[in-house]
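User: Quick sanity check before I run a bigger batch. Here is a single chain. Can you write out its predicted 3D structure?
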Amino acid sequence: MTDLTLRLHGLKCPLPVLKTRKALSQIAAGSRVIVECTDPLAAIDIPALVAQRGDVLEDASRDGEVLTFRIRKS
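Assistant: Done. Predicted structure follows.
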């Protein structure tokens, strides 16, 4: 199991969710993707993607403009 970090600062919708979907499709079950982005819509889009795929959103946080999501692939 590995952690993959995506630094998607400055990208606008739909790119953060598309890049997150692609990363999740390329890693093994049990691995984690950590997504850092600045698109405010990602606060809605990424949790929706995780729920749709059946993966686990372990943590979501905000530090200033940066949103961070920790997603474990099921």
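The CA atoms of residues 17 and 45 lie 6 Å apart.

User: Great, the batch can go ahead then.
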